[in-house]
Structure formats: C-alpha cells, structure tokens
Design a protein that fits this description.
The chain is mainly β. The chain is built from 3 helices and 20 strands. The termini are far apart.
Length: 289
C-alpha cells in the first residue's frame, strides 16, 4: 500500500478528477471533457509545482474533504470557499502543506460553482485515451469521487510556488458570452436571431458539465422538423424543442440533431462554468476572427 495517496473523507455533491481532457477523438464519438474552468485548474497546478497537464479535483458547490497518507502540498482555487487543515483555517488560492493523516476540508463555495484542488504530484489514476479526466457523458475515466475512495498520487515534479496568493477573477455577477453565428442560424426566424442577442436570459439550475441551460425567451423556428445528427463543437449554442438555448460545455456530445444557432467564444466558457443558477446572462454578437 503506497503512502502517496488521498483518502476521500467527504466526496461532496459532485467531485471528479479532471485534467486538460482528451482532444482529438471526436471522430470516434469521444468528447474532450476536462476541467470546465481550465485557467483555475492550471493556476492551482502551478501553485503546487505540478505540470499543467497534471490531474486535479473539480468540486461542485459544496467542496469535499480529503486525508493524505503522506505530507503533501495542496492549493484550492476556482470558486472561493473556506479551507481548513486539521480543523484550522488555511489559505485559499495559495500553496498549503497538509501533514499526513490531517483532513483537508474544502468548504462550500461562497461565490461561483466549481472549485479546484491540486495536490503535489497530481492525481495519478489510470489514464484512458491519454487523459485522467472523468467524462460524465461517455463514462470514460475514473468514477466521480465517493466516500472512502483512495486516489493514488504521483511524485512531485517541482517545489511549490513561492507566493502568498495568486490573483484570480471572481465569478461573474453577469455572464456575458460572445457569440458568432452558428451553422444553422437559418433554421430560426429573424426575430429569434435578434432575440438571442438582445433579450435577457438567466442560468438555469438544470445546468451541468454537459451544458449550460438557460431560462428566458424561447427562440422561434423558421423551419420545422429535426436535423440529421451532425458534429457539435465546444461552445455550440443548441436549441432543443423548448426553444431555450443550451451552451455545450466540456462533456458535451460530439453529435446532435437540434439546430445550432450560435457558437460561444472558447475564452468565455470558464466564466460559464462558474455562473450559479439565476446569474443574468447576455449573448453578445461578434464577428468571426
């Protein structure tokens, strides 16, 4: 039994192993997956001295609790939250030493949705198609964390960063998503295309790692029926029969039969990952680059 491991004391609402995902397999029907907020995951990795592709833990809303079998350095980032080690307050957004046997408690998010926990050496679960990411849609990668699970850790590559804390933008009070016209915009009326970028929406509580669902005006079709299944990209804004736009996130399907009215700029998707239900949302049209 190796001492380079984490014991899951409290798994939380949904905690998964994530890295930069498994791009390049869409032609086989395999989503990219990976961290929904890549800048947050990359930052916590840098803070503990990990390479950028090391696997981290992505928490959802109420955090998790972990007990290392050996002394490790951790960093918690993404959605701001209280952090304790052995019941004592510890820093968020900075390297923290957790002695062997002590419990790292990552508390509920005080803003935002998803937190990221990096551990020196990275989470060393077995990779699948070159990635350790949990894909909730396809079932590839490790299962979501459960109480009592033991996660192996890799060997630290570098010393932790020498910082007191790292600046990081907070979760958005209003989510602004820049969009370009999608391949099936002509399936909608001119009014629907206008409504998408002029009317107010909100983030729905039904959102998940597959897609950010919205509440707001339904978009009217100009053409009835459904499309044959066709390829979908990260950030595609698909419109199902209820007319409410859905923004595809990391675990999105690689194909779909509902028309795509627009596509969100990739740079705006990390903010979408941190927008809690009820967050005001605007789609802003931009030209293709």
């Amino acid at each position: 039994m190796t001492d380079r491991a984490l014991v899951v004391v409290r798994a939380g609402a949904l905690t998964t192993v994530q890295d930069r995902g498994r791009p390049g397999y869409a032609h086989l029907g395999v989503p990219r997956s990976g961290a929904l907020d890549p800048p947050a995951a990359a930052l916590v990795n840098r803070l503990v001295g990990n390479p950028p592709d090391a696997a981290v833990l992505e928490t959802t809303v109420n955090g998790c609790a972990l007990r290392p079998r050996s002394t490790v350095t951790v960093a918690v980032g993404g959605a701001p939250c209280p952090v304790t080690v052995g019941g004592r307050p510890a820093a968020w957004g900075a390297p923290v030493v957790v002695p062997a046997g002590e419990v790292l408690e990552v508390g509920a998010a005080t803003a935002g949705v998803r937190g990221y926990v990096a551990v020196s050496g990275g989470v060393a679960v077995e990779p699948v198609l070159g990635s350790r990411a949990t894909d909730l849609l396809s079932g590839l990668g490790p299962a979501p964390l459960a109480d009592g699970m033991v996660l192996p850790l890799g060997v630290p590559a570098r010393p932790p960063a020498r910082v007191d804390g790292a600046p990081r933008p907070g979760p958005p009070a209003e989510l602004v998503l820049r969009v370009t016209a999608g391949p099936r915009a002509d399936w909608f009326t001119a009014r629907a295309v206008r409504d998408l970028t002029t009317r107010a929406y909100r983030v729905s509580a039904a959102s998940n790692r597959i897609g950010l669902r919205t509440e707001g005006p339904a978009l009217e079709r100009a053409r009835p029926g459904e499309l044959p299944s066709e390829g979908m990209v990260l950030g595609a804004v698909q419109v199902p029969p209820d007319g409410r736009p859905v923004v595809f996130l990391a675990d999105h399907p690689t194909t779909g039969g509902y028309p795509v009215i627009a596509v969100v700029r990739t740079a705006d998707l990390p903010a979408a990952a941190q927008a809690p239900p009820g967050t005001p949302l605007r789609f802003v049209p931009v030209r293709r680059r």
